[in-house]
Amino acid sequence: MTANEIFDTAAGWMAQSRADSDDLAPFVPGMLNVLLEEALPYENALRRFEGKAELQQAPRVTSETMDQQIDYHDALLRTALPYGLAADFYRDDENYAVMDDFRGRFVTALTDSIKATAEPVEDLY
User: Fold this and answer.
1) Which of 49, 99, 47 is nearest to 58 (CA)?
2) Tens digit of pLDDT per residue, the chain (125 long)?
3) How far apart are CA 105 and CA 70, in angstroms?
4) Which of 58, 106, 74, 94 is nearest to 5 (CA)?
5) Cβ–Cβ contacts within 10 Å for residue 16, how many?
6) pTM for this model (two decimals)
7) C-alpha 102: how far from its chain's center?
8) Which has the closest alpha carbon to 26: 60, 70, 66, 57?
9) How far is CA 86 from CA 13, 50, 91, 100, 103, in A?
10) What's the pLDDT score for residue 69?
11) Terminal CA-to-CA distance of the chain, rounded, Å?
12) What are the residues facing 2 on neighbouring strands?
């Protein structure tokens, strides 16, 4: 999924298209970069569960890379990040009640993405 696809989904939560939300476009890369950083521990937990190498840092989005694929799991790209971006849009609109709702959805989607990983336990007795 690309940053523009996340933007499309988040704009849809406001009953708008990306074209209708054009005034927000310059801010989307910065907003997404913060969300990607917040989601990094969850992405790495999913990677650990699958036995894959963890990311050392979150991907960065710029206005030039909005159409490039973001290397995160679909559970984060399709649900959590659009909710987080929608929360930022509603904050910009100064609609704090709806912003809080979408921020809560973002956090819930992050925690729902976690899968249990078995690890050895050392007996200290």
Assistant:
1) 47
2) 999 999 999 999 988 888 888 899 999 999 999 999 999 999 999 999 999 999 999 999 999 999 999 999 999 999 999 999 999 999 988 999 999 999 999 999 999 999 876 778 888 88
3) 21
4) 74
5) 15
6) 0.89
7) 12
8) 66
9) 7, 29, 9, 10, 8
10) 97
11) 49
12) 69
3-state secondary structure the chain: CEHHHHHHHHHHHCCCCCCCCHHHHHHHHHHHHHHHHHHHHHHHHHHHHHCCCCCCCCCCCCCCCCCCECCCCHHHHHHHHHHHHHHHHHHHCCCHHHHHHHHHHHHHHHHHCCCCCCCCCCCCC
74 neighbors 58 (Cβ within 8 angstroms): no
Q: Which two tokens stand for residue 73?
A: 């799991």
| Cβ-proximal residues to 41 (8 Å cutoff; 6+ apart), any chain | none
Gap between the Cα atoms of 47 and 43, Å rounded: 6
Q: Which residues pair with 69 in a beta bridge?
A: 2
What the block records as the tokens of 89 is 């849009």
